[in-house]
Design brief:
Number of helices of chain B: 8
Radius of gyration of chain A: 19 Å
Distance between the termini of chain B: 32 Å
Largest sheet of chain A: 7 strands, parallel
Shape of chain A: globular
Largest sheet of chain B: 7 strands, parallel
Number of strands of chain B: 7
Helix content of chain B: 40-55%
Distance between the termini of chain A: 53 Å
Structural class of chain A: alpha/beta
Strand order of the largest sheet of chain B: 3-2-1-4-5-6-7
Oligomer: heterodimer
Helix content of chain A: 40-55%
Order of helices and strands of chain A: HEHEHEHEHEHEHHHE
Chain lengths: 270, 243
């Protein structure tokens, strides 16, 4: 048993040395960000992508709808920054891997990954359909693991990186009618904590952002007309304001990293 | 205004300097006149302005006197950064020690919070009247052995801050709680703890302890948040901290 332990320790040490050697060469690469779940504009994913592009990163916007992605990319390019749209189904792991390969082969180090996938479909507990439950778990939670694994592998090569997960009030507690969403979100939050503890010491910053309120974006404005307007000023989160918080997390010095922050409008009851 | 300012290399001083760089006149409150004066001088030499106020934040009259110095200015930001994590075995938590923790963490936070809220509410109504920040610790969230008294007081301060945030957010006052989970690379550890502190910092390695200026940068970001996305609580720890 001691022999195994020593062999394992030596192997780990060699692996670390190899990584450090690779990392020292990779530091000069230009940096890129990948946003998973960049849908409509205005929206959270696209706002974060725009903020990262403004900060000098080349941004890969990924989502399911090509038209929406192209529109967002066009907006970033017209501001003179770099962006690319890639249709990605996060429930297909090969597509997740492909986007990291694409950035690598273009000569970029992916320094920021945003996992902003999640669908809140409320319904009574007894009406939860196992098939739909599994489908939502695959995209909202399992995909977080797989994006996280690809991101960590890529970032270890570069010796640094930041991975940010979008959470919700449901990450912390299950309200009546939100069992499915809360279970997925709680899982994602635990994942982010576990990753932060494992990879922080390897210079990878993993953080979880709890969005506690409604986001004033295209998604909500079309699915629930009048809801945002009814809340009045500062009654809903503005995507650009939220994106600023993500950017702050990305810019934090490693002596003082946040693992979790909450965000809500000043008028929110909580 | 920053309450709980000691040496230059500390959270209070770093935040005061950051706020002054952001264009605010800063009232710097602490117990030691000389320390406060040197920070005021540093701010002045950088082109900012500040006033030193010696103050015991656990005494209501001191707090009133401090807030009277705001004068005609608008109070935009208050950081309450008072507390001492003195370890003691549970059975040796004497009444005096417990009372001290409670006075610094809960009573002082409440007195300063009330004064700040009154000031801010009296100011002309705005979407964002002002920001009130509290520094918390890992002990705000859980009680480790030897820290029963400190943890109970810090947990109390956290609950107070949460309650304030819920009450005054809709009135334009942003209340946030910053959980500092790790050793701060400041004067307290560097010289206050003697050789033990230096050994501790060496063991932590580069960036293994929180740098006061970086904590201050995050505090300033919180103050600058737009009203549609306010943070009430965040944690801060060094990248290699086990937690």
């Amino acid at each position: 048993m001691l022999g195994t332990f020593i062999r394992q320790t030596l192997q780990d040490r060699r692996e670390r040395a190899r990584r450090q050697k690779r990392a020292s060469g990779a530091r000069t690469l230009p940096r890129a960000a990948i946003v998973f779940g960049a849908g409509a504009r205005p929206g959270l994913g696209t706002a974060i992508a725009e903020r990262a592009a403004r900060g000098g990163l080349r941004v890969y916007l990924t989502g399911r709808n090509r038209d929406k992605l192209e529109q967002s990319v066009e907006a970033i390019r017209s501001a003179g920054q770099e962006a690319e749209a890639v249709v990605v189904d996060v429930t297909d792991e090969t597509q997740i891997g492909a986007i990291f390969d694409r950035a690598s082969s273009a000569g970029y180090a992916v320094d920021l990954v945003i996992f902003n996938v999640g669908t809140n479909r409320p319904g009574g507990f007894l009406d939860i359909d196992p098939g739909k439950l599994e489908k939502s778990w695959r995209s909202d939670c399992l995909a977080g693991f797989q994006v996280g694994q690809h991101a960590v592998r890529h970032m270890l090569e570069n010796g640094r990186g930041t991975i940010l997960f979008t959470g919700a009030s449901a990450s912390l507690r299950g309200k009546a009618g939100f069992g499915q969403f809360a279970a997925n979100k709680a899982g994602l939050r635990s994942l982010s904590q576990s990753m932060a503890r494992e990879f922080g010491p390897q210079n990878i910053h993993v953080a979880h952002v709890i969005i506690d309120g409604i986001v004033d974006g295209a998604r909500l404005r079309s699915s629930a007309p009048g809801l945002v307007e009814g809340r009045g000023e500062a009654g809903a989160l503005q995507p650009d304001a939220v994106a600023e918080a993500y950017w702050m997390l990305y810019r934090q010095h490693r002596s003082s990293w946040s693992q979790e922050i909450d965000l809500r409008p000043s008028h929110e009851h909580w | 205004m920053v309450i709980g300012v000691g040496a230059r290399r500390g959270i209070g001083a770093a935040t005061a300097i950051r706020a002054a760089a952001g264009g605010l006149h800063v009232l710097i409150a602490g117990r030691t006149q000389e320390k406060l004066d040197s920070i005021v001088a540093e701010i002045a030499s950088n082109g900012g302005s500040a006033t030193a106020v010696v103050c015991d934040s656990t005494v209501a009259t001191d707090v009133d006197l401090l807030f009277s110095q705001v004068g005609e200015r608008k109070l935009r930001l208050m950081l309450y950064n008072v507390g001492r994590n003195i370890p003691a075995p549970f059975l040796q938590n004497e009444r005096e020690l417990l009372t001290g923790h409670w006075r610094r963490c809960v009573l002082g936070a409440t007195l300063a919070g009330q004064a700040a809220v009154r000031h801010m509410l009296a100011q002309e109504a705005e979407d964002h009247r002002g920001t009130i920040l509290y520094t918390g610790a890992s002990a705000s969230l859980r009680g480790k052995p030897l820290f029963a008294g400190f943890a109970a007081a810090k947990a109390g301060a956290r609950a107070m801050a949460q309650s304030m945030a819920r009450e005054f957010g809709p009135q334009g006052i942003h209340v946030a709680h910053v959980v500092i989970d790790g050793v701060v690379d400041g004067e307290i550890v560097r010289s206050g703890w003697g050789p033990l502190g230096q050994l501790l910092l060496r063991n932590k390695g580069e960036d293994g302890a929180l740098l006061p200026d970086e904590i201050a940068a995050t505090c300033w970001s919180l103050h600058r948040q737009p009203t549609t996305a306010w943070t009430h609580e965040l944690d801060l720890r060094p990248y290699r901290e086990a937690f």
